[in-house]
Structure prediction request, 1172 residues.
Amino acid sequence: MSASASPRTDGWPMRAAQAMLAPVLAVAVAMVVGDLLILTYGESPATVYHLLLEGTWGNWYGFGQVLYKTMTLTCTGLAFAYAGRAGLFNVGAEGQLAAGGFAAALLGLWLPAATPAGLAILLCVAAAMAAGGAAGAVPGVLRARFGASEVIVTIMLNFVLLAMLNYAVASHLSVPETLHTESMRSGFVPRLGGTFALFAGSAANWTIVIAVAAAVFAWWKLFRTRSGYELRAVGLQPDAADYGGIPVPHTWIRAMVWSGAFAGLGGINFVLGYKHYYEEGFAAGSGFLGIAVALVGRNHPIGIVISALLFATLSQGGLAVNALVPKQLVDILQAVVILAVATAVPEVQRLLRKSAAALMPRASLEAST
Amino acid sequence: MAVRMRQVSKRFGAVQANRDVTLEVASGEIHALVGENGAGKSTLMHLLSGLSTPSGGRIEVLGRDVTGWDTNAAIDAGVGMVHQHFMLVPTLTVAENLVLGREPTRGLLLDDARAVADVRALAERTGLRVDPTRLVAALSVGEAQRVEILKVLYRGARILILDEPTAVLSPPEVEELWTVLRGLRAQGDTIIIITHKLDEVVAISDAITVMRDGRNIARFATADTTPRDIARAMVGRDVVLAFDIKHAAAVSSRVRTDGPAALAVRDLSVHGDRGTRVIDQLSFSVQPGEIFGIAGVEGNGQTELLDVLAGLRRVETGSVHIDGQDVSLLSVRARSDAGLSHIPEDRHRRGLVLDYSVSENLLLGRQHHFASSIGTMDQDKIARHAELQVKTFDIRPPDVSLSARALSGGNQQKVVIAREMGRAFTVLLAAQPTRGVDVGAIEFIHAQLRAARDAGKGVLLVSADLAEVLALSDRIAVMYEGRFVCVLPSSECNAEHLGPYMTGAARAVAT
Amino acid sequence: MILLAFLLQTIRIAIPYLLAAAGGVMSERVGVIALGLEGMMLGGAFGAVLGSYYGGSAWIGLVCAVAAGLFVASLLALCTLRFRADQVVVGIAINLLVIGATRFFLRLAFDSASNSPRVDGFGGEGSGLGVMASFSNPLVLLGLLSLPALWWLLWRTPFGLRARAVGEKPEAAATLGVNVGALRLRGVLLCGVLASLGGAYLALDQHQFTDSMTAGRGFIALAAVIFGRWMPLRVAAACLFFAAAETLQIQLQGIQLVPSQFVELIPYVLTIVALAGVVGKSVPPAALGKVE
Prediction:
């Protein structure tokens, strides 16, 4: 009687496959561009890619560095995705990230050295998330109350936050002749190299576990809780959410606060797990790269972790191939991936919808009345 | 003949919007094209104005075969359409809007002065008074409409098509429009008005063509006919016979008048987006065990009424009570918990989150009942709930993980109905419950509504489909311009009787 | 004399803002979000240096700058107008792309990771801040005229009328036969040209290209566009105001009256304040960011 899609085309494996089409296409496009650029340098793409893989997944130090970079990218990716699921653009992860790291460093400085490690870390993590969340609240409230574009506000706020932190550090808190604060007294997160000798020398530390836990938490919050249900409804169809009694502006604010908190969490990687102080520019670029990570990961926590690994690999790989090809090649590739995914997603969606409509003409026609 | 359309047909996929339609409009006459929503009037005019091309038939303008032409050709030939939704740029002036695309220039520069002068001259000549230098955003609706008419006249239109021009006008503005149209007619222009308001048709037109279900049913000379004849042609007696009208004799035994009303509305007034009253001192109640139907053409305040009752719009004056409890200030969620269920008229925009699965959609508005105190949703409870609803309401295909987008219209509506009716409620607001739904699902939905009534619930049914209202309701009110122009037991109603009320041709004192 | 020096330095600082902001106004007025200004400026800066170095004169540098700007703008137009990709994401990606590409080609062309060799600009050696020196640079004049010229374009020509209509209500323009897509494309390309000229001025004035030399100026220009409510003359005033604050901060550097970081912040804070509607409502063109 009614011609609808066959049940199996809409189960989650199928949907996951459909979601991955655009990113896979995008990565392919990026690789082609990469090949061209490598050739202009007179090198062979095969050699370069081989070297890249060797320098990242081919040795333990390299892999450790990849893990290190994955942590921050996972957090900033989650930040963009969480707000994205609510229909908002958080472009402010750079500033929120710095604020988080700064708060963690300050607290670590303030807490006495005798503080039990577990408690100190917990408090510093909380401080980082609170600082990021506060930074996220500003664009959230401005959007909810005044309809101000969160895109512009977050971009502007990045500059504001970074400048303010710069001032705070430069004028009061820095160790002379440096751009960083003093070393923390407590709240240290040990390196992976301490437990697994293979990772010795790399910056990889146990905050990676916190990042993965954050991803799991984000997944749970988005897909298993009432607030996540409401948030996603607001992002997908605000009119229906409104009809269903979901307070839209309120949801936006909460989404931005959580989004900022995730970004702030990204700051503990450097501060708690690596250098144990706040340094200006410590994670430069990770905020914006988080957008790429979220896009390729299709705004899904699991996809984001995988995507973060990918971008971290590219980042580290750039260093590894620097002898043959400038590492800036990686910068270009990362940007190309963003462009390609951003372009591919609407196209792929359009094509999928066209083919689905062709399969079930009745349904789509009635849907349009 | 200014316009002659012969055996014109138009299909959209499986839907036949126009079927062998014949329309003849003489030069220099004001011709009304009349019919209910969905009769095919706008479609027909889109064919004439070049917005779409016919699937069959011939269109002649001023003796020339123009079948299948596009808007530019139509504009060049002097056919201009004024749409229901204005296409004006609010931040530009009247003159700028008018000359856009055909700007007078002096060298490279825009000749502002000439634009203003040209517009002023045109306004004078046609009697469409409007100041060319004012910003469109500052205009009243009536003035904006004048600008739209000027727009087509500026491009040389001699045959004007107006789509529901009075839908947004107040009575004095309507009079001004008639004056303008008579002036244009005196200059030899031909005017076709699409409308459903019979009192206005009688006031302004020279000839009338009635359409129903995509066909043209009758052609009248206005002077030789009465509103009742027109209304009967519009609504048609045979359509009513398609439904089995069950005027249950046991009406009185089912309706409970002992306790509080399921829904009680007192002196409700609400202003619309344009500042006019869209709901005007409305008072009525729906008793437990009855279906109260509101008939009427869309745009008379039904949408706003439902929004207010549901909690999506604020009560300005008056009150709303559900089961004796004053809910006037309560939120949507609170009203839902107080026993209100709502089937929205637009399931695609509001009723469903299309990208959510069936089981997720079955939670919308009630998700807090499926969550624990920390917020975790009980997946088992959700799954069981979904399975139960799918079975009870025969939603096909029975896969609860399918996204709502993949379902047919009828099954999508069943999801909404399952959600709203598959739980405890006191009063149900059902807006256009069978719009865009296939026949089998219509029967099912009607059965559900009757079952709710039989179980002692109050149902407020709002539908533009008069046959449906007649078939289901115990009492029927006709809504016109924000008021109930009559409230009658359904045994006293049929299409013929109600038609004039719906179209404003007759008014009775509201009971 | 101090006042004159102050004025001249303000103008020097303002020129990139004026040019980029003019581009921003054009782009946003036709409905395309101008987040790629930074990338267009940087591309223009690099092109200018490349052209001046290999071509031997600043004029060739200008041509190359414009070519770079057009290239970047075309890429943005392709992704957003033809493929309907999200304008915010594309804008950010373009910026990242240009940063990476300029670094890459910096190494390729000049074998350095941080800066190019010295190139000829406009005006000779030791021109400093003199009045004559300032005005012998054609870009200075262009910069000062850019926003008034844009005003004239938008309010005095048919193209401008249609552009404004497209940015507010494209459907209305479309029903009147205006080619919305072509108009948007022209607007974006013009934006690319103007922004790249802003970058060219920057590079030629410093006589070299340094990595990421635009340092956020594209965003300050965008801030000026928003703060000036998309009206060219107000935007010009905003640019001059921001530049004046910067000049003040530089000249007062020794005195440490206000920390330099806080002066830097003025454009950004003002934009946020403007968006919150604290001093009147800053309402963008209604169809900004939407491509049907």
Notes: Chain A is about 75% helix and 0% strand. Chain A has a mean pLDDT of 87. Chain A touches chain B at residues 1-5, 7, 10-12, 224-227, 229-230, 232-233, 236-237, 239-245, 356, 360-363, 365-367, 369 (CB under 8 Å).
